Amino acid sequence: MNILHSLQNSSIAPLLLSTIFGLVLGSFLNVVILRLPGGWQVFFGSMFSRCPQCERRIGWYDNIPVLSYLLLRGCCRSCGKRISLQYPLVELIMAVITTWLFHNYGPTPYFFLYTLFFALLLAVAVIDLRLGTIPDSLVIFGCLAGMTASVLTPFPGWINALIGMILGCMVPLVVATIYEWLRNKTLIGGGDIKLLGMIGAFVGWQPLGSILFYSAFLGLLVAVGCRFIGKSDRLPFGPFLAIGTVLTLFAPHSS
Q: Is the pTM above the cut of 0.85?
């Protein structure tokens, strides 16, 4: 039997396509992560990728997700300087996400909805790790996308999404304001507050408590570990909110 015909009639081909889709989407996310915080055009600027070190244009054959990084051994073809490991990691993480989502939801609206949601979370987490800031444009777009999707899909429903977005912003804002008034220290940044509002717009208000618990617990563990090894820099909270969301939505729960 022809191998290609066999693949087309199996469940492997759609999963493979979803993996490739994730790799390509991850490559685009790297563009967003690099250009958006600096105010560069993501869609309407130069369509060509350039080495951040020597600024020479990167050919398409050196822009194949993950594969090009491996073939080039993590170095620029032109100047030979190291390419950040961020690029293949973001591509691989996004590929794992889209493959997992397609396996569970198939070609349904929820596959595309959750793909967009986790792509936004991944971009926000990496930007926050790199720069310690969360672009307003990403979370505002996410809030609008989440609310729009809530009208078009049964879950979580637009009322739950609206409540989730409002509570996601208001609860941490009130807590942070009280903490700052009592301790004269910043507990959580404005970008993190808006990010939780975006998360609420996508998942509704019900999971927000668990998301905050997981995020705070993980953040505390890492902070204690950093203090133990002598690092006292302020940790960005966006990545912990992203991980807390994943754990809340997809960790096994007892029935």
A: yes
